Amino acid sequence: MQHVSREEHKYVMTVEAYYRLRHLISQVMVRDRNSEQNSYRYSKGTGYTIRSLYFDSIDDRDFHEKIEGIELRRKCRLRTYMHDPSFCMLEIKKKQGYHQKKTSFRLTREQGERLIQGDYALLLELNHPFLLDVYQMMTQHVYRPKSVVTYERDAFIAKENKIRITFDQAIRGSESNFNIFDENLVEHDFMDPYNVVLEVKYNGFLLQYIKDLLMSVEKDQLSVSKYCLSRRISKHYIF
After folding, report:
1. What element of type H or E holds 141?
2. Cα dist. 86→103, 123, 132, 189, 222 in Å?
3. What pTM does this model have?
4. Residues 151 and 24: beta-carbon distance below 8 Å
5. Does residue 8 carry a pLDDT above 80?
């Protein structure tokens, strides 16, 4: 099990601004190990493909808390990395403003497939305190699979303050097929393909030289999450 606590900021930028900033960032930060070892399926360059299945309550509590700007909110997802679909991560993200705490538990592909099918008894069988809490939440509020989100990530890291900068593009997914292990999953775009989502994550404070680089390119604060973007069809919501 993994615990991560950090501050997180999200922005949307053009592809042109992304290439400029990526070049600058690459001069002072190192690539994430996954970015070095795996290649995009849908775009040129280095990086890796992430796919997540989001669960939400029967009344879409997590979706509405984000849209309505509730200060304390959460997300529940099952995440896999397409270069190695032999495992997945069950994750709970809790956010308060820009601060987030993420708890992750590694599962096998077979265990993930059981959750996708609604077999939450698996969480009881594994008998771990975190999974027991997730089971209580998912059964009490009737959590069900709601959408899949897939994207290509290019990531850079700095040891100081555990700074992590990621660029996500080709953001797409499905609200009808929840099999995150299906390599031929039919998906549609959630964002303009000429836009890239920049995420800046760190502990404590952001180093000044990185802050200066981020200020050198044009970008806009992203007001909605990838999960909310993925529900735009079923919720008839325009972002």
Report:
1. none
2. 20, 19, 23, 26, 32
3. 0.91
4. no
5. yes
Phi and psi at residue 38, in whole multiples of 5°?
-130, 155
Provide the H-helix boundaries in the chain. Answer: 15-28, 33-37, 61-67, 109-116, 121-126, 129-140, 208-215, 226-230
- Rg of the chain over all Cα atoms, to the nearest angstrom: 18
- Angle at which helices 208-215 and 15-28 cross, to 10°: 160
Which of 8, 5, 13 lies closest to 215 in space, CA to CA? 13
| Contact present, 76 and 53 (Cβ < 8 Å) | no
Q: Please give the single-letter amino acid code of residue 5.
A: S
Domains of the chain, with CATH numbers?
2-230 (3.20.100.30)
| 128-162 pLDDT per residue, tens | 999 999 999 999 999 999 999 999 999 999 977 77
The tokens 């200060």 sit on which residue?
A: 71
At residue 221 the predicted structure's pLDDT band, cuts being 50, 70 and 90, is confident
Q: Which residue has the tokens 């999974």?
A: 131
Split at pLDDT 50, 70, 90, the class of 189 is very high
User: What is the per-residue burial (b if ≥16 Cβ within 10 Å, else e) of 131-144?
Assistant: beebbeebeebebe
